Every structure is written in structure tokens, then in C-alpha cells.
Amino acid sequence: MHSNEYIQFFDGGIDPKLENLGGKGASLVTMTSAGMPVPPGFVVTTAQFDAFMEEAGITRDIHELLAGLDPEDMAQVDKVAAAIREDILSRPVPQALRELTVTAYESLMSRFEAPVPVAVRSSATAEDLPDASFAGQQDTYLWLDGVKAVTEHIRQCWASLFTSRAIIYRLKNNIPNEGLSMAVVVQKMVNARVSGVAITMDPTNGDRSKITIDSSYGVGEMVVSGQVTPDNIMLDKVTLAVVSEHLGDKHAELVPDAAAGRLVEREVDAERRGRRSLTDAELTAVAQMAKRAEKHYKCPQDIEWALDADLPDGENLLLLQSRPETVHSSKPIAVSQSVPSSAVAGGYFSGLSPAPSAAAPAATTPPAGNAPSSATPSSGSGFNLGSITASLLKPSF
Questions:
Q1: 251-262 confidence digits (pLDDT tens)
Q2: Is Hydrolase a UniProt keyword of this protein (predicted)?
Q3: How is residue 265 annotated by DSSP?
Q4: Average pLDDT in the 158-174 region?
Q5: Inter-helix orientation angle 59-66/74-90, to 10°
Q6: pLDDT tens, residue by residue, 310-337
Q7: What is the SS3 assignment for 125-190?
Q8: Which among 82, 166, 154, 97 has a CA at the least distance from the CA of 126?
Q9: CA 350, CA 139: separation in Å to the nearest integer?
Q10: For 49-74, how does the pLDDT look when each residue is reduced to its tens digit (9 = 90+)?
């Protein structure tokens, strides 16, 4: 299958456009085109979302519901958000659009000897912009098997464009609803042995002569959501020498359960907890990848990475996402200065995670199994990161 208006493969040879692929999708296509080690996949473009919304006839209703909405009136925001999402989840997807997605999924699966699990990730047109930070506001689902689960969770991602948290953020930042759209990334799931994040600066003071890396065992969602305290290592960006490091507790990891076909939480034994999750060579490789992303995008980057247990050493480091750093990048370059170890202890994401609030509830550790990391369980399969979407009945795609 070739890329088209409604489906764009990462390696399809079409120039990435934010308005078609959303921030995450455009980044993945760009990184693939640049020769970076990105797991294969495709993007269900904004054109498919827009066609669905037009066919369903609910775009005008959404504009009317959001007009004049007070972001401080949480009860009304929750009511409006729930109504919009229920509308999206209850309408049928045009058959021609559904068939395109099914064919794209089958084409992706044909690249492997046997079907592999995938991640389904939201990619809104307003996310990952240099002057905005939408991380975690829309849905991500991990370790999905089969076309039914994939198509169902694509619709869930569409609906997550209208969570209370996302609506409030857009209202408070004067981001208009008109023209807002949602693409969805479908990507081969990585069997992560170790994963984490890296930022091409010191996030405590914006010092661009440093690289900061957080790493922990298993799938990286426990790092991003702050459920584990990862290892935190700071390196000199030029020499890649370790400037400081703090060993995190790393008490648990998310790993695939092949028999159950889902991710499960597993306790990390004392020996592994007591040592750094990355070897010296792996640490250097992650730092070099972060520098390469920064050089390509010409601005400080915040990347997600993983070491795939199914690939040989030297070929197992994969780039999952790269987005512009949004806190310090607009400020003058900081003068290098020492930072007390207590300032970085606990890791970059754990230190800068949003404080719990009505709009962004604190992440809770999921029970073993296929449960979302948000406070409200999601019916259906898949591990859901960062969603505050209420549990709703989800029809087939």
C-alpha cells in the first residue's frame, strides 16, 4: 500500500506537514527521512479525522458547545467534554475510510514474519510546537494486537482531543478550536529492555552545554508519568563525560506478557535496582542520538528512546519521539553553572511533572495487567497513558 491523503507511512516518501500529520506524526516521518532509527509505522492523517467529523455532522455542534466556555468552570467543562467525546465515540466511521486504515495495518504487519503489537498514539495539530507543551494531553495506547483493537483505539485518540484538560489548556492559551484536528500514529511496539527520556540541556537552568538523561527498566511510560524514580545522569554535550549522576530507585518495570498479550508491572530485583540501568556505551549512544536530533531540528530537543530487547547490541537503540524543548529554549543561552545534586535527584520528568490538580490528576501506579495509568480505568485493551477521559462505551470502529 502506498501513502495517500488519508494514510501516510513513515517511509512513504511524502514530505511531512504538521497540518496533515500533527506534531508527533510529522516528527516521526521527519526522523525516519533523516535516517534515524525509528520503529516503522504509519499515520492516520488529519484528513481522515476531518472527513469523519464532517460525515458525522458534529463539527458545528462542537464549535457551539465550546463558544464562550469558561475554563474556570470545571463542572461545565467536564460536561461539555464528555458530551463531545461521547458523540465522537458513537458515530460510525465511513466504510471507505475504515478500509484504508485496515489495509494500512495489514501492510505494516506484512513487514514482519508474524504479527507484532503496535502503539496507537494521538498526534494533534497543535501539539509539540516550539511555543506550546501538550505532552500527555491526548491518549496513547500500548501493546495492541489485531486490527479491531487498533481501529477502536484510533477513535479513542480522536475523542481525546476533547478531554477536559486539553480543552482548558487551549482556552487558557488562546488556541482556537477552528482548524484544530487530530492525526493518529500507529507504530510497531518496542520490546523495551531499558527506556527513558533525554533533553539536550540542563532542565534546571537551561544550560545548553549539557545533556540530561533519565533511564529506567522496561517501557518508558513509568518514567514519563513519574511512577518510578529513574536514574538521572548529566553529561557534557561536547565530551560526553558524565558530570553528575543519581541512581533512582527503579522499583518497578512495565514488560510485555506474551501469553496475556499485554503489559504487566513487575518488581525490579535489588541487584538491578542498585546499579545504573544503562552501561557506559549505552549512555554515550543515547547522548549521541539526542545531539543528532538537536542538530537536525536546530533547537534543543526533548526525546524519548528505548533499547529493544529483540535487537542485537549496537542496533537496539531506537528513537521514539523528538519534540522541541519549550521551557528554556526561548530564553538566552544560560551560563554553565553547577547545580546541587538535590536539584536533579529524582530525574527530569519526575521533577517537572505537573502538580496534581482537578485538570490533571496525579498518575497512579496501574495494577498488573492491561490497565490505563490514568485514575479512571479504560474498558477495552491497551495501556493508556495520560488520559483523563472518562470510561465510556466504545463501539467497534
A1: 999 998 877 778
A2: no
A3: E
A4: 91
A5: 180
A6: 888 889 999 998 989 877 765 655 444 4
A7: CCCCCCCCCCCCCCCEEEEECCHHHHHHHHHHHHHHHHCHHHHHHHHHCCCCCCCCCEEEEEEECC
A8: 166
A9: 20
A10: 999 999 988 888 898 899 889 999 99
3-state helix, strand, coil in the chain (%, to 5): 30, 20, 45
pLDDT at 175: 84
Rg (CA), the chain: 20
- Torsion sign over Cα 97, 381, 388, 230: negative
pLDDT at 126: 67
Taking the C-alpha atoms of residue 64 and residue 66, their distance in angstroms, rounded to an integer, is: 6
Contact 364, 59 (CB under 8 A): no
As given in the structure block, the three cell numbers for residue 21 are 500529520
Instruction: For residues 296 and 301, give the distance between their C-alpha atoms in angstroms, rounded to a whole number.
Output: 10
Contacts of 88 (CB under 8 A, 6+ apart): 53, 56, 58, 155, 158, 159, 162
Q: Which residue has the higher pLDDT, 367 or 261?
A: 261
User: What is the per-residue pLDDT for 137?
Assistant: 56
As a whole number of angstroms, the distance between CA 29 and CA 42 comes to 9
Grid coordinates representing 11?
517511509
Is the confidence at residue 387, as pLDDT, over 80?
no
H or E element, residue 326: none
Per-residue model confidence (pLDDT) at position 93: 94
Q: What is the average per-residue pLDDT within 221-227?
A: 85
Q: Determine which helix (DSSP H) or strand (DSSP E) holds 273, and give its type and residue range.
A: helix 270-273
Distances (CA, A) of 89 to 58, 153, 335: 12, 10, 50
Q: State how far the Cα of 366 lies from the Cα of 230, in Å rounded to an integer.
A: 17
Residue 359 has what pLDDT? 34
Spatial distance between the Cα atoms of 387 and 122, rounded to a whole number of angstroms: 11
Residue 255 DSSP symbol: E
Domains and CATH numbers, the chain: 7-188 (3.30.1490.20), 192-329 (3.30.470.20)
- Provide the pLDDT for residue 44: 98
In whole angstroms, what is the distance from residue 247 CA to residue 306 CA?
18
How many alpha carbons lie under 13 Å from residue 339 in its C-beta half-sphere? Answer: 24
CB 397 within 8 A of CB 148: yes
- Looking up cell 534546571, which residue turns up? 204
